[in-house]
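Proteins fold reproducibly. Take a sample protein:
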Amino acid sequence: MSRPPTFTPPEGTLAYRLRTARGDFAVLDTRPTGEVKGTALLLPGFTGSKEDFIALLRPLAAAGYRTVSIDGRGQYESDGPDDESAYAQAELASDVLAQAAAVREPGDGPAHLLGHSLGGLVARAAALLAPATFASLTLMSSGPAHVAPSQQIRAKLLTDALATHPMDVVWNAMQAMGPPEDADIDGAELRARWLRNNPAQLIATGKQLCGEPDRVDALAALPLPKHVVSGVRDDTWPVPLLDEMARRLDAHRTVITGAEHSPNTDRPSETAAALAAFWDSLAPQ
């Protein structure tokens, strides 16, 4: 779980519900004050939300990029049905294409797609469905296939618990098992976010994390610039696995010093600089 430094949007950021052909989605939308070089669509990970990118919004806007972070269906402030089938990966990927179409405005430049962790799996599925929609794809701490065995065990424990217990009971159990030093970090806001997730979404996407096939070759075949970003350590997808995935994709590779599974919250300034530099490199010379 990414732990954002705050749940309060920064100055200049609009929080609203984005209307799309596939429903409404809660977003945080930050525009540059000057020229817009491009628009970045940011997809959060498992148990996360649009606020996971909150520390990136102003730096990316300062670099010239309109930045829109999104709660997917059933995530935090976006509604979703109580049916696991509604959260099939193809459904989530189709949502992303609808979001990209709804966000796009004249003069906003090319659309860059970024997904963190689970969001990376959804992002690559969207790119495979309609690669011409995006000018680039960034996979942040998101690997080639299913998560590491230790994380599969954790995900299965969580999804099994969610199938039989209320969300608040599961939250209390998670906190009891978590490291003591995490007990007082934004506890009330993190709990409030957790309780607003639809359990069907968490169960369905938790299963996806455990069963995701390797789709790297199919993604590599797309004529789409790619960027693989991670911290120096990652328990969900080991860093050497991400290095190898980047090689297979012929992707630009960035390792953020001092960061682990969530460079977006661990080292936001450095992460924003790396993202903007990659997108800048794609601009016509």
Observations:
- Residues 180-185 have pLDDT under 50 and may be disordered.
- The chain has eleven helices and eight strands.
- The chain has one domain: 13-281.
- The domain at 13-281 is CATH 3.40.50.1820 (Rossmann fold).
